[in-house]
Amino acid sequence: EAQVTQNPRYLITVTGKKLTVTCSQNMNHEYMSWYRQDPGLGLRQIYYSMNVEVTDKGDVPEGYKVSRKEKRNFPLILESPSPNQTSLYFCASSFSPLGGSNTIYFGEGSWLTVV
Amino acid sequence: DAKTTQPTSMDCAEGRAANLPCNHSTISGNEYVYWYRQIHSQGPQYIIHGLKNNETNEMASLIITEDRKSSTLILPHATLRDTAVYYCIVRVVRYNQGGKLIFGQGTELSVKP
């Protein structure tokens, strides 16, 4: 079954304690990205990756890092989390970033609370 | 980047067709219109997409106007499980944008018995 899998699904952490949210897809997709969803602001793209070792900033990259060492994995790293990073996070992937006709699949989301 | 405008909320009677409108008057010629839905706070679920022609799949139909400035998502026989927030999205396909989806506020569809 085609899947985008995120872990953890729920996490409460403290300010400044580094954490990583993992994302894995089993569809051999080239393109992966991270979004955050906040009330009244909708979903906003944080980072994206066109392929292995190719990443770039989205609209709200501050406070986040990513890496793409393997095609299937695209972890989101919060080096020093702050309360304003409390949000619902989604990982997404598609076969290719180009060509508008590639369906983008989303993971089930990761609820992150920073206290 | 092309933006979309949708009504904030709509109601639909169970078993009836739900017609969700979307305005995307600044869409470019190579940009696709996508529809996703989100039930509670689950991951957005793909419904359908199109460029110029009308499209239909097992979930819904997509009607795009000839000038491409607006579209309508049709759920032919809405059920209670179709209650969700529906997002009309224009997909950016410029290389340096990485195929980003620009989400608006969406339409909250309530299907009522």
What does this structure look like?
The complex is a heterodimer of chains A (115) and B (113). Chain A is built from no helices and eleven strands. Chain A is an all-beta fold. In chain A, the strands form two sheets. In chain A, strands 2, 4, 5, 6, 9, 10 and 11 form a seven-stranded mixed β-sheet that branches. A four-stranded antiparallel β-sheet of chain A has the order 1-3-8-7, with no helix packed on it. The termini of chain A are far apart. Chain B is built from no helices and ten strands. Chain B has strands at residues 9-13, 18-23, 32-38, 45-50, 55-56, 61-64, 70-75, 84-91, 101-102, 107-112. In chain B, strands 1, 3, 4, 8, 9 and 10 form a six-stranded mixed β-sheet that branches. In chain B, strands 2-7-6-5 form a four-stranded antiparallel β-sheet, with no helix packed on it. The termini of chain B are far apart. At the A-B interface, strand 4, strand 5, strand 9 and strand 10 of A face strand 3 and strand 4 of B.
Indicate the topology.
The complex is a heterodimer of chains A (115) and B (113).
Chain A: E1 4-7, E2 10-13, E3 19-25, E4 31-38, E5 42-51, E6 54-57, E7 65-66, E8 76-78, E9 87-94, E10 105-106, E11 110-114
Parallel strand pairs in A: 2-11
Antiparallel strand pairs in A: 1-3, 3-8, 4-5, 4-9, 5-6, 7-8, 9-10, 9-11
Chain B: E1 9-13, E2 18-23, E3 32-38, E4 45-50, E5 55-56, E6 61-64, E7 70-75, E8 84-91, E9 101-102, E10 107-112
Q: Biggest interface, and residues per chain?
A: A-B, 33 and 25 residues
Residue-averaged pLDDT of chain B, rounded? 90
Q: How would you characterize the largest beta sheet of chain A?
A: 7 strands, mixed
Count of DSSP E strands of chain B?
Answer: 10
Assembly context of the chains: heterodimer
- Helix proportion of chain B: under 10%
Rg of chain A is 13 Å
Gross geometry of chain B? globular
Structural class, judged by helices and strands of chain A? mainly beta
Overall outline of chain A: globular
Mean pLDDT of chain A: 93
The percent of residues in helical segments of chain A reads: under 10%
What is the ordering of alpha helices and beta strands of chain B? EEEEEEEEEE
**What's the N-to-C terminus distance of chain B?**
39 Å
The helix tally of chain A amounts to 0
* Poorly predicted runs of 5 or more residues of chain B: none
Gyration radius of chain B, to the nearest Å?
Answer: 14 Å
Distance between the termini of chain A: 36 Å
